[in-house]
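Continuing from the previous page of notes. For each protein in this section, the sequence appears first, followed by its structure tokens. Read the first protein now.
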Amino acid sequence: MRTQREFLLDTIGRLNTAGVQYMLTGAMASNFWGIPRTTHDLDFVLLLKPEDADRLVAAFQGGFFIQAESVRAAFRPPFQFNVLDEQSALKADFWLLRDDPFEQTAFARRVEVALFGFPAWIATAEDVILHKLSWNRLTPSDRQLNDAAGVYVVQAETLDLAYLRRWAAHLSVEDTLEDLLAGRIRPKTT
């Protein structure tokens, strides 16, 4: 059975080989920038055009379950599809980059890092925090707040606070961000 690390690196390798621009987000991105926690899936944002769908599907042949019709349907709401690893039943969720000012900015700011020794494109620490706070606003969850707090406590000295505050206002999460910055939201310690 394959490990989550192997699944992650295989998924990133296939995206890199297919030439699909992507950004790792979600729990794996917050694990990279903050305090790690267990997660059972991967989250990516893709810059994908309809004419690239078949190339992406081909890249995930062999070892993955992927449905071409799901990929093609992702160009309509909710702009999402997934692949399953046939060896471990782990899942990768792919969200298509939307025409939204914050999403576009976050994608443009993504950074290339060495993830377990392999090149990978990942959301910045600031954008991970903002995504987590935004998801918490839509569907309140201690997990989202804990992830955001974990990134904050690890990256506090390097964060662009003006950027965080500007986009927090845009995303209607400014009060939650201020609670985070003031230490009223803390990462889970057990």
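Done with the first. The second protein uses the same format. Note its length before scrolling.
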Amino acid sequence: GQQLDLMVQPIDLLPTLCELAGVQISPPEPLHGRSFARQLMTGTGALRDHVITGAHLNPERVSQNQVPSRASTPFLRSGSFGYTPIGPTGTPQLFDLTEDPFAEKDVAPANINIVSELHKIFLQSMAETGADDAFLKLWTTPRNSTTGGSWARDYST
């Protein structure tokens, strides 16, 4: 019957469960997640200043450096802002989630500096969690805000 205002990601679950169970594991590669066991036990504290929801991209298309025909767009939450590097017109979108909790009003055009900052955080976070160069390259190509960018075709009617 309690809740904790804490930003976590699915990759944080395994380290948390292991810590709570007192289990030490030695995976072949380091875990990218962070345990939030302390926050659960004390009911206070922060774990992350941003989180990203996942996106599935076809590895073959990414390795061939092709824009996938269908993919779920990543969404980064940082503080009161929600950011996606690609919206329905092929350009980044930014939402003030305090004023717009359902992310319906794009405020990116009036907040270019915040968009740029959150895009850097997005790329850094993806690199830190093991995204390969082909994946990162897809998100570093500048988008043309007047033509909608190369991703806009996924949203045509």
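What the second structure shows: The longest helix spans residues 112-128. The chain is about 30% helix and 10% strand. We return to this in next week's lecture.
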